[in-house]
């Protein structure tokens, strides 16, 4: 795979989210709210924590969880892009602003 830009990832994330919306309409008769999307992200972020503990040998698991951890990290990044889009925030700009501000704080 070529290097994926943040802009490309954001566009792909938006398309995937549109497909999930159609499933929500089909199964529940309404789309998830921004708040429900945020809660779904927090749930996945919590799973990243638990899977990280397991990967580091601090939480017992029955089998290897490397694929699950990688998937949940990717899904968490996806959720952040979805949330940014829904709230009118440019993911690439938000990340660049954060990095620039933090680099200045640490004189990097």
Summarize the structure in short.
The protein is mostly helical. The protein has helices spanning 6-28, 34-55, 66-86, 91-105. 6% of the residues are buried.
Helices and strands in order:
Blueprint: H1 6-28, H2 34-55, H3 66-86, H4 91-105
* Largest beta-sheet characterization: none
- Indicate the proportion of strand residues: under 5%
Q: Number of DSSP strands?
A: 0
Query: Roughly how many Å is the radius of gyration?
Result: 17 Å
What is the number of helical segments per DSSP (H or I, 4+ residues)?
4
Mean pLDDT across the residues is 95
Measured distance between first and last alpha carbons = 31 Å
Low-confidence stretches: none
Shape: globular
Helix percentage range: over 70%
Give the helices and strands as they follow along the chain: HHHH
Structural class: mainly alpha
How would you sum up this structure, described in words?
With 108 residues, the chain is an all-alpha fold. It contains 4 helices and no strands. Helix 1 packs across helix 3 and helix 2 runs antiparallel to helix 3.
What distinguishing features does this structure have?
mainly alpha, 4 helices, 0% strand, 108 residues, MazG-like protein
């Amino acid at each position: 795979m070529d290097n994926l830009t943040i802009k490309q990832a954001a566009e792909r994330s938006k398309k995937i989210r549109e497909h999930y919306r159609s499933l929500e309409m089909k199964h529940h008769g309404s789309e998830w709210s921004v708040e429900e999307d945020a809660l779904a992200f927090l749930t996945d972020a919590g799973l990243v924590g638990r899977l990280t503990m397991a990967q580091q040998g601090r939480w017992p698991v029955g089998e290897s969880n490397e694929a699950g951890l990688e998937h949940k990290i990717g899904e968490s990044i996806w959720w952040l892009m979805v949330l940014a889009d829904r709230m009118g925030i440019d993911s690439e700009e938000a990340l660049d602003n954060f990095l620039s501000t933090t680099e200045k704080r640490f004189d990097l």
